[in-house]
Write a sequence for this structure.
């Protein structure tokens, strides 16, 4: 469904004449958020130093859901039509102010690979919950830039062209970014220092192209630094999310699993949980029964198919600068050129995960 505002165009009988041109940022599917986000990367073996801070944040998010639920019930008891009109007026004013809205500051993304754990959350939460741990662990790194979030809603399918649409124009203009695909949306994290420039770029019409120059540049950089993207064949993954009525339960089970399991032995080798700025809970879970059972999620709390799985391509970027530009679009370009038109991407601090459906495995193995 495409929404086109017609207030500036003339009607001729039953015909509408519209110079059809869509900007990159479509108001119907895109939101910008004001929270300043920091990124913390930790060697997996050192995660125990940060565990208590992670649990504090998760329970803080749980409290926010439970408090809001109680407040909503109370508001419903005192509901009036005048209150509803006021809310609608406020929403209209926010939309007119350029899509940028105030969020609750509880965006949270926690991702594990076999070597790295990465945390994305508000800079305030990083300082509050991890300052002492960062002082203790000299191997952990907080990336120097602070970021803002562009969230683009999707329907649960992550098509490669969308990744290219969001990342290619920024990369071509020398803007670094981090990218998170989840079941509900794609999140682009852009340095705040580049905010004005990035929004000007994305507000202009843009048609992504299979730019071989970007692909060649990315893979020459990999070759120069002895980086070989590797397909993790022994881990099948589910890209899914929690049902709206089960957010609290899934968060509690996640906290319980982090507390109970040995992260180096029993916790899933690849795992991610994302509390989006619009409050959904996205999940990247192991498909393997034993690993999934270790998390103790009830299957009825999880959305989507448990049979459609992905393989992860891991790209180790620790030898490259943290503000590296063009990697996401370079990899997406190569896969699209190989006719892999469905993929998801997950940035970590010092690595990247490209998720491809199992049906493309043979193509990816030959192509990489």
């Amino acid at each position: 469904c495409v929404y086109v505002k017609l207030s500036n165009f003339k009607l001729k009988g039953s015909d509408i004449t519209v110079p059809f041109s869509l900007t990159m940022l479509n108001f119907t599917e895109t939101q910008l958020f004001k929270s300043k986000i920091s990124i913390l990367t930790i060697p997996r073996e050192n995660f125990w130093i940060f565990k208590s801070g992670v649990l504090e944040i998760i329970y803080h998010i749980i409290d926010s859901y439970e408090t809001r639920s109680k407040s909503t019930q109370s508001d419903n008891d005192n509901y009036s039509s005048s209150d509803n009109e006021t809310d609608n007026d406020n929403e209209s004013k926010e939309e007119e102010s350029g899509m940028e809205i105030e969020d609750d500051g509880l965006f949270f993304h926690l991702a594990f690979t076999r070597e790295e754990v990465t945390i994305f959350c508000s800079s305030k939460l990083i300082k509050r919950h991890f300052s002492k741990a960062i002082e203790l662990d000299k191997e952990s790194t907080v990336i120097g830039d602070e970021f803002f979030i562009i969230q683009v809603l999707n329907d649960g399918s992550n098509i490669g062209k969308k990744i290219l649409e969001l990342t290619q124009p920024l990369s071509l203009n020398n803007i670094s970014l981090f990218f998170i695909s989840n079941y509900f949306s794609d999140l682009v994290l852009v340095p705040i220092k580049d905010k004005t420039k990035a929004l000007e770029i994305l507000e202009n019409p843009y048609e992504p192209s299979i730019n071989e120059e970007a692909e060649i540049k990315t893979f020459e950089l990999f070759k120069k630094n002895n980086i070989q993207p590797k397909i993790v064949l022994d881990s099948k993954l589910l890209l899914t999310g929690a049902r709206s009525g089960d957010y609290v339960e899934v968060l509690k089970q996640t906290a319980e699993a982090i507390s109970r399991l040995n992260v180096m032995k029993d916790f899933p080798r690849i795992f991610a949980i994302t509390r989006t700025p619009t409050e959904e809970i996205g999940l990247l879970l192991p498909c393997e029964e034993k690993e999934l059972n270790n998390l103790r999620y009830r299957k009825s709390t999880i959305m989507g198919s448990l049979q459609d799985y992905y393989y992860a391509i891991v790209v180790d970027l620790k030898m490259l600068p943290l503000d590296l530009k063009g990697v996401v679009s370079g990899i997406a370009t190569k896969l699209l050129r190989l006719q892999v038109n469905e993929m998801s991407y997950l940035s970590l601090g010092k690595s990247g995960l490209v998720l491809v459906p199992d049906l493309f495995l043979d193509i990816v193995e030959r192509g990489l």
